[in-house]
Amino acid sequence: MNHISNIWNHPKTSGAGLLIAVITIGSVLSQQGITLGTAGSGTVVALVSGLASALLGLLARDPASPASSANSTSSTTKLGAWALIALLLPLPFVSGCSEASVAQNIVNWTPALESAVATVDSTAALLAPADAPIFVAATAGFDAASNLLVAQAKAYLANPTASVLAQLQAAVVAFQQQVNASFLSAAKISDPASQAHVTAAINGVATIVIAMLSLVTSASSEDAVARMASQSTIKLAAVRPYMDESKAVAIVARHYGEPAEWARAQERQVELNVAQAGF
After folding, report:
1. Which of 196, 199, 210 is nearest to 274 (CA)?
2. Among candidates 74, 65, 57, which has minimal Cα distance to 15?
3. The pLDDT of residue 58
4. In whole angstroms, what is the distance from residue 28 CA to residue 48 CA?
5. Residue 65 in this model has a pLDDT that exceeds 50
6. Given 95, 117, 141, which residue is the final one in a domain?
7. Residue among 138, 125, 115 nearest 254 (CA)
């Protein structure tokens, strides 16, 4: 009877617990390839998990009743924490709902990638004369790699087959390796002002390439991911000291139109997933 009375006396907390259970179960089902059918361009599991996450966010903002106003701040804080925990779970819509939605998400990143590469191209003019040649050499392949990756992403959206996916896998790994190599080469630049420009420019490209790499791996088999990781000789851990989390969070937040806290959780989860996959 105590369990029943607790549910009745604390409906918001009980509701939050139920929604988190739905999200967690949905995550497990998605990881096992259980979809329960399709819903639009995604799956039923993804749809239910996404709705549960949205309802959890609304519940965290639900105002307390006048009778419990003394505990409203504490209650809202706790529910906000539960909402953040739910965001950190490997949700189906983070790991990819379907080939079509993954392909669309990859293509959606391409304008930001093209803009970031354009920033790299214009950065050399801001550097000290001795530093510009180092930076230009470090980022020389960015334009070609970006054009190839964008083309492969659009090709995969139009025709999400295994053969096209294999080409996309090769393109994103090759670009990721170029970006990692550029971080290490640009580290030779000692002028503080030049280093600030260089780091900001490369970080803009790195953030988007890592996001696209995560999306591609979510649509790939375990064997394919292992093959991709074996081609990644410069690991994320080697360049992490040069990465700027605040810039990455700003890019993700702007791309998805979401609060920085949510973007930070997503960015960290993506980096963790990529590192655990062997990149």
Report:
1. 210
2. 57
3. 56
4. 13
5. no
6. 95
7. 115
Same-domain status, 47 and 182: no
> Which residue type occupies 277?
A
Together in a domain, 36 and 137: no
- Residue 43 phi/psi, 5° resolution? -120, 165
In this structure, the answer to whether residues 58 and 116 fall within a common structural domain is no
Give me the number of domains the chain comprises: 2
Cα distances (Å, whole numbers) of residue 195 to 38, 86, 123, 127, 192: 49, 37, 11, 8, 5
CA distance 192 to 81: 39
Asked whether the beta carbons of 186 and 142 are under 8 A apart, the reply is no
Q: Which residue range forms the structural domain that includes residue 131? A: 99-276
Residue ending a domain, choose from 40, 73, 95: 95
Indicate the residue type of 248: A
**Residue 51 pLDDT:** 61
Residue pair 126/197 in contact by the 8 Å Cβ criterion:
yes
Q: What pLDDT is attached to residue 197? A: 96
Alpha helices in 219-239 (DSSP H): 222-230, 236-239
